[in-house]
Amino acid sequence: MAKNRKNQAAAIRFGPALKASFFILLIGGSAVGFVWQKNQIDQLGLQIASREKQVFQYKRDNQKLKIQVSDLQSPVRLDQRVKGLNLGLAPAQPTQVVHLGELAPAAESNGPRQFAQRPAADLTP
Amino acid sequence: MTNKLQISRARLLLFLIGLAFVGLSGWLVYLQVVCHDELAKMALDKTQHKFWQEARRGDILDVHGNILATSVAVKRICANPSMIGNQQAVVARALAPLLQLSEAEVADKLTPHVARNPKGELVTNDLHYARLTKNYVSEETWQRIFATMTNLSFGVNEKLLNRTNRAFFASLRQSAIYAESAQVRNYPNDSLAAQVVGFAAVEETKAEGRITEQIVGRDGIESSMTKPLSGVAGWRLTERDSKQRELVALRNEDVHPRDGLNVVLTIDEAVQHIVETALVDALQKHTPKSITGIVLRPRTGEILAMASLPNFNPNNLNTYSTNSRNRVINDIVEPGSTFKVVVVSGALNNGVVKLTDQFDCEHGRFAFAGRTLHDAEPHGILTTKGIITESSNIGAAKIGIKLGEQGLYDYAWDYGFGQRSGIQLPGEQGGILNPTRKWSKVSIAQIPMGQGVAVTRLQMAMAMAAIANNGWLMRPMLVSQLQERDGGVVQRYTSQRVRQVISEATSRLMIEALKTVVLKGGTAPEAALKNYVVAGKTGTAQKVENGTYAAGKYISSFIGFFPADNPELLISVVMDEPKEGHYGGKVCGPVFRDIAERCASYLNIPPDPTLMTNAVPLVATNGLK
């Protein structure tokens, strides 16, 4: 009886210990998880702030480049540059411009085929 | 006995503890209930910060999206003198070259001063805020200043210092010098279209207990479209850690700013440049007091260019003066002979005259209502068409008399004189067109030749555009659309018809008459184009000074459009007191031709087929089958 009681007592001690360990692990794990999560939130927050700063900077750089492009395309600057380089460039006169009327699309079957439409076999290497 | 004593002691202790708890509870209630609002505010003030996020002012773009005005992010360098201690000299030595100021000047701004105010009270300068520069600096300059401050050495071994002193030097480096973000307006083309674009100034306003700097339009589109350009500021309510880094997770409110809209104009940067260079050449040749030019599309009223010299550079407002105002809409003058188109078209439209009707032009002298009217050159019998061709004052007066006072007034009003055109620019004048009851006996003869009325140059151009546009008067159009920053269209403006002043048939008759002005025998053969048929009218008005006509001072003008039968462009050139000639055709005609030829080439306007017979072939056809 005593032997059995002794054995039973050992079994009883192991059960609560397991439960307690599990409980402690759960609490401890939750606590560590909570801290880790908080830390992650902070880290991600810092990353968000840094990315936002970067986006802001990119927008600002884009704006600078836009102004630069506008400056390079400015007729005033181009005119000054053409005059400065003395290239003898002048705007085309109206008589020097050929106006091409829109041609009606050729019929699919009867119209002459374009080079790009020829089958590959017809093409000479 | 002992047990009793112990129990009584325990009770006493319990009572004291209970009393302490009651006291603490009372204190807690006091703090949490009575002082709640005050303490909550204090706590919030210590942890929460509200950051204002200023909206970026929109750009002003030309019709092709080229930037005419934009905002550039800049920094204003500030200091907190209370954090600098006695290290002003070291900081000043490091920053002076970067701020382009003298060391003494910087050191002075970093030093707290005590002085007496007029009431005799001792006052100090702001111990926590000093602006080191009057002007803004670029982002790059601020980065250099920040790097300089971070690496600044104060000549002491800080490792040997106590904690307080180490913290002092650390905060000096980190926070004593800081930058305030701002934006300034930049005009990449300097003076190009300066009067149209206008300029903006920085204005300090106090709202919700904070001083904010706001860009406010002062002239031109910057002023008239300031509301859509401005946008709405946003804010962020957030907390910071001990290193002054934002705790994003604790953001309470985050309202993004709504940037201002981009205003897209109908102005074409290239056409504007063509007009301004032509005007500069004319300014050098004829040295007038001022010269203006307008290019517009008669069918839509879209203004492609509007220039007035002298002008100013909006990047340097020292160049701005009343002389550089936009005379196209701000000034009113007697139009002179260009106004003849109003009376002749009205008379043709009413059927009181025909183009072939003949008038005796009295050989240059016509006595009417106690006054003698003159022509620049004596003419005998002229047809209605001839009156336009040769710009006869007497002929126009006789047509005016035939049309009648009310008829003349009605047509002038219908053409838009005496009222603002509604262009989206500030300061537009309506001109002077008196009602007939205020007319003198001679008014009916004077007004047809452009005297006794005052008009803006834009009004005159729009009236001529109505003749070119089958009689339809259009509202001048300067803003084409409002865009989001990414290019999405928020609002599109369309051309607006105001009214049909004359019939299509009358408009064709007027164009036939106006075509003869640039022919040999007309008043402006200098305005004829090689590849296009031009229709136009000259004007040479004597200037009015102190209520009388000043001798030798003229307003010369030419307004023309081409191709005459299918008008694409209308160009108006007006000079105030030109030297080296004063007739509109002689001084303004060549400027018109110069602008027209270059604009036609740039805009690729097909040449008039009737004038293409002498065109040189582009490709040699010899030998080709």
Helices and strands of chain B: which structural class?
alpha+beta
Give the tally of β-strands of chain B: 26
For the termini of chain A, the CA-CA separation is: 104 Å
Give the oligomeric state of the chains in this entry, treating copies of one chain as homo and distinct chains as hetero.
Answer: heterodimer
Low-confidence stretches of chain A: 111-125
User: CATH superfamily membership of the largest domain in chain B, which one?
Assistant: DD-peptidase/beta-lactamase superfamily
Rounded mean pLDDT score of chain B: 90
Helix content of chain A: 55-70%
> What composes the largest sheet of chain A?
none
* pLDDT < 50 stretches of chain B: 617-625
Cα-based radius of gyration of chain B, to the nearest Å:
37 Å
Helix content of chain B: 25-40%
How would you characterize this protein structure?
- The complex is a heterodimer of chains A (125) and B (625).
- Helices cover 66% and strands 0% of the residues of chain A.
- Chain A is an all-alpha fold.
- Chain A starts with a helix and ends in a 40-residue tail after the last helix.
- The model of chain A is unreliable at 111-125 (pLDDT under 50).
- Chain B has 625 residues and is of the alpha+beta class.
- Chain B has two domains: 53-80 and 129-265, Penicillin-binding protein 2a (Domain 2), CATH 3.90.1310.10; 269-482 and 491-611, DD-peptidase/beta-lactamase superfamily (Beta-lactamase).
- Helix content of chain B is 34%, strand content 24%.
- Chain B is built from 20 helices and 26 strands.
- In chain B, the strands form eight sheets. In chain B, strands 2, 3, 6, 7, 13, 21 and 22 form a seven-stranded mixed beta sheet that branches.
- Chain B starts with a helix and ends in a 22-residue tail after the last helix.
- The chains are: A mainly alpha (125), B alpha+beta (625).
- Chains A and B meet through α1 and α2 of A and β3, β11, α10 and α20 of B.
